[in-house]
Amino acid sequence: MSINKRAEVGSKIIFYMVFAFIATVTAGLLVYIITSEIAGISKIPPGLEEYLLVKRFTYSKDCFVDESTGIISWDKFTDITLRDCYNTDSNSVKAFRLSLSIIDSNGKITEEIDSITTENYDGFFTKKIEKDIEILKDSKTYAGKLTIYVENENK
Q: Which of 145, 83, 136 is nearest to 112 (CA)?
């Protein structure tokens, strides 16, 4: 009987060693899968930041929009308004250059404001976004185009 008990103890030790190895590998795989899924969820989709900033420039009353009409104001389209609207104190934010144009019925530019830029704009844009908008100038509404040049695409 003592030999039989030793064999049982030996086989139990082997069983628990194999079980511990399999449990450790399974737990490690489970932790790896969960952390990789969480990391994937937290990634910002490409273009989302630019989309939100374009919305901010075109619809926010803190930026260029006239408060009474909800249309971009020709008079508010200045460097000062841009700096108040979009803080560039951090180096990790994107830089922008914006230009505003009034367009006639033939699609030709009739008036244009020279570009305004954020303080961190270096002059080398990586992406150009154009948006057809309405512009309020001298209490009249005009068809126009807002052109946004994005710098620091990979920041």
A: 145
Residues facing 102 on adjacent strands: 111, 144
Yes or no: say if 46 and 127 are a contact pair by the CB < 8 Å rule: no
Distance of CA 102 to the CA centre of its chain: 28
- 106 phi and psi angles, rounded to 5 deg: -90, 0
Residues 6+ apart with CB under 8 A from 128: 147, 148, 149, 150
Locate the domains of the chain by residue range: 1-43, 48-151
Six token digits for residue 141: 């509404």
DSSP one-letter string for 72-91: EETTT-SHHHHHHHS---ST
Angle ∠(107,113,116) on CA atoms, nearest 5: 125
In angstroms, the CA 77 to CA 57 distance is: 10
Token representation of residue 152 = 């620091």
27-53 pLDDT, tens per residue? Answer: 999 998 888 777 777 777 877 877 888
Residues with Cβ within 8 Å of residue 155, at least 6 apart in sequence? 91, 92, 93, 94
pTM for the predicted model, two decimal places? 0.65
